[in-house]
Amino acid sequence: MIRPYVLSETNWKHLKDAKVDLAVLPWGATEAHNYHLPYATDVIEGTAIAEESARIAWESGTRIIVLPTIHFGVNTGQSDIYLDMNLNPSTQAAILRDILTVLSRQGIYKFVLLNSHGGNNWKAIIRELGLQFPEMFLCVCEWVNILDRNRYFEEPGDHADEMETSLILHLAPQWVLPKSEWGKGREKKNRIQAFRDGWAWTERPWSQISEDTGVGNPHGATSEKGAAFFRDICSSVAGLFMELGDMDRDDLYK
Ligand SMILES: [Zn+2]
What we know:
Elements: H1 12-15, E1 22-27, H2 41-59, E2 64-66, H3 89-105, E3 110-115, H4 123-132, E4 137-142, E5 157-159, H5 162-171, H6 193-197, H7 206-209, E6 215-216, H8 223-246
Parallel strand pairs: 1-2, 1-3, 3-4
Antiparallel strand pairs: 5-6
Helix pairs in contact: 2-5, 2-8, 5-8
The chain binds zinc ion.
Residues 33, 41-42, 159, 164 line the site of zinc ion.
């Protein structure tokens, strides 16, 4: 079935008379995810969350369109990991500027970037583009920060961990290697306390912090956990989409 709120699937017949208020751009990455998950893991997650959340919003009347996901992200810390792709932040800013130019020209002034990869940092870029597109409302949604993962998963982690493995077991199980192939996702921590505590930051050279490229033990992952987490994430993201659709940006603060 053609979904009218997914740009890749819809058509000119529908769009020539349509009016869209809100555009969503999922932005992922193409990179190793432990031994067992596909390189497109962040793309699969971001696309599925955007489309399912948009479906819920669309069905309650939000005039929304999901743009095709950008598959490459910032992977400056993984330059020695085979076929991890990298877009520099300045390249991302240039791509985003062109996309916003199209949307603005066509009168779509509400925009949300659905971020699906930890190496993509949007605040500085959104700040700068906000000055260049004052007619637009720009925002970023970090779906990984929505829910308390401890309520869904046993082991903490942040890359190809129990959470991501569960999500991909739910969304694309055909691309997950058997459990016997899963690495432990053990992370080596920085020797300097300030970096461990998070008040100083430096790029992590990925090949030095993890042997299997994973950070977080995936072994408790199941598709049922992934399904429950996915459903609750999409319910929150759909709520945001609906509120953005209704929002009057001149009356946003009370
Ligand atoms: Zn990921």
